[in-house]
Write a structure and sequence with these properties.
Oligomer: heterodimer
Largest sheet of chain A: 6 strands, mixed
Order of helices and strands of chain B: EEEEEEEEEEE
Largest interface: A-B, 22 and 23 residues
Distance between the termini of chain B: 36 Å
Shape of chain B: globular
Radius of gyration of chain B: 13 Å
Helix content of chain B: under 10%
Structural class of chain A: mainly beta
Number of helices of chain B: 0
Helix content of chain A: under 10%
Strand content of chain A: over 45%
Distance between the termini of chain A: 38 Å
Number of helices of chain A: 0
Largest sheet of chain B: 7 strands, mixed
Number of strands of chain A: 11
Shape of chain A: globular
Chain lengths: 112, 113
């Protein structure tokens, strides 16, 4: 039973355009969500997070949107840069446990 | 954020042997976590390690196979025991900072032959 799903294994966008990565979850107990970027041979790097009491959080080129009724979140990267090419994981957590459940990841390729 | 180091960064081991992975953090943290990322898969939580108490293991992971130590607030070890090729994975430690945000170490890449 996969509680956090990233249904798109890969995404390719042109440099300068918007990248939209999507994530769905099933457990209503999740109350915070995070996005991580992972390069090969490195550990995941924290990008941005959002609490369940918000529907949007922005940090520079990165914006995360949360739709609680749809149990859906998305990460927008604008403008996309070639250095953004990596695997992106969404993760969901419950403040009761501190544990994170990760999605399968989406490989983003930004073409120059 | 947090500065986290792991040793070894990678290893190739023979089946039946054991490997201990070390995780060192630059400052004291309460909660440390151990994850596994099998080839082509997502990150899966193995256990939560709090200082002064036994580690809490997730479903599918047992202490005999993955014993964990947490001797102080900056250090933890994970041992992969009696290894088989199915244990070939990236093993990652993480710590909780800034609320619920977890920061990860660089990972240990394990290949079991």
């Amino acid at each position: 039973d996969q509680q956090v799903k990233q249904n798109s294994p890969s995404l390719s966008v042109q440099e300068g355009r918007i990248s939209i990565l999507n994530c769905d979850y099933t457990n209503s107990m999740f109350d915070y969500f995070l996005w991580y970027k992972k390069y090969p041979a490195e550990g995941p790097t924290f990008l941005i997070s959002i609490s369940s009491i918000k529907d949007k959080n922005e940090d520079g080129r990165f914006t995360v949107f949360l739709n609680k009724s749809a149990k859906h979140l998305s990460l927008h990267i604008v403008p996309s840069q070639p250095g953004d090419s990596a695997v992106y994981f969404c993760a969901a957590g419950s403040s009761n446990t501190g544990k994170l459940i990760f999605g399968q990841g989406t490989t983003l390729q930004v073409k120059p | 954020s947090a500065v986290i180091s792991q040793k070894p960064s990678r290893d190739i081991c023979q089946r039946g042997t054991s490997l201990t992975i070390q995780c060192q953090v630059d400052s004291q943290v309460t909660m440390m976590f151990w994850y596994r990322q099998q080839p082509g898969q997502s990150l899966t939580l193995i256990a939560t390690a709090n200082q002064g108490s036994e580690a809490t293991y997730e479903s599918g992971f047992v202490i005999d196979k993955f014993p964990i130590s947490r001797p102080n607030l900056t250090f933890s070890t994970l041992t992969v025991s009696n290894m088989s090729p199915e244990d070939s994975s990236i093993y990652l430690c993480s710590v909780e900072r800034s609320g619920e945000t977890q920061y990860f170490g660089p990972g240990t890449r394990l290949l079991v032959l």
